[in-house]
């Protein structure tokens, strides 16, 4: 009975970073809602869409986002959403609205949204480097042959 039980149990496989084949995806942010769009990108970057997902290993793929300036928010959030930053000096808190940030740095809006959905560890710092965001539809990653993905 014990031998039958041992044969039926399969050991858990932990993926190593050498076993992962990374792909490149390109996604278009034109008309997409920021939060839903960012959560799907975070899943791809972390590798949660991969059946060999291991939480402590970088099993995700690269994502190139184009048309970041055309991302949108629902309801009144366009005028209410604020991004805060502190310089660590007294009175050093600075606030920018979504409209100000999207006008000046549209790539940072998506980067901040995705970064907030990744782990706050060394692994998260490594994962966010796999996100490439561009305001327009031109990007320098054609050599990687990115696969178009509809989110």
Annotation, overall tally of beta strands? 6
Uncertain spans? none
Helix run count: 6
The CATH architecture of the domain at 21-74 and 105-148: Alpha-Beta Complex
Give the end-to-end Cα distance, rounded to a whole number of Å.
49 Å
- Estimated radius of gyration: 19 Å
Please give the largest β-sheet: 4 strands, parallel
Write the CATH homologous superfamily of the domain at 21-74 and 105-148.
Ribosomal protein L13
Category from helices, strands and their pairing: alpha/beta
What is the third-level CATH name, the topology of the domain at 21-74 and 105-148?
A: Ribosomal Protein L13p, Chain: A
Strand order of the largest sheet: 5-2-1-6
Give the overall form.
globular
The percent range for helix content is: 25-40%
Order of helices and strands: HEHEHEEHHHEE
Q: Which strand-content bin applies to the residues?
A: 15-25%
Give the helices and strands, then pairings.
Layout: H1 2-8, E1 24-28, H2 34-46, E2 62-66, H3 77-80, E3 82-86, E4 93-97, H4 98-104, H5 106-115, H6 122-127, E5 131-133, E6 147-148
Parallel strand pairs: 1-2, 1-6, 2-5
Antiparallel strand pairs: 3-4
Helix pairs in contact: 2-5, 4-5
Key terms for this structure?
31% helix; four-stranded parallel β-sheet; two-stranded antiparallel sheet; 151 residues; 6 strands; single chain
Could you give a short description of this structure?
The chain has a domain at 21-74 and 105-148: Ribosomal Protein L13p, Chain: A (Alpha-Beta Complex). It has 6 helices and 6 strands.
Describe this structure as you would to a colleague:
The model has no long low-confidence stretch (mean pLDDT 92). The protein has 151 residues and is of the alpha/beta class. It has six helices and six strands, in the order αβαβαββαααββ. The strands form two sheets. A four-stranded parallel sheet has the order 5-2-1-6, with helices on one face. The chain has a two-stranded antiparallel sheet with strand order 3-4. The protein has a domain at 21-74 and 105-148: Ribosomal protein L13 (Ribosomal Protein L13p, Chain: A), CATH 3.90.1180.10. It is globular and about 65 Å long. The longest helix is centred in the first third of the chain and has 13 residues, at 34-46. Helix 2 (34-46) links the parallel strand 1 (24-28) and strand 2 (62-66).
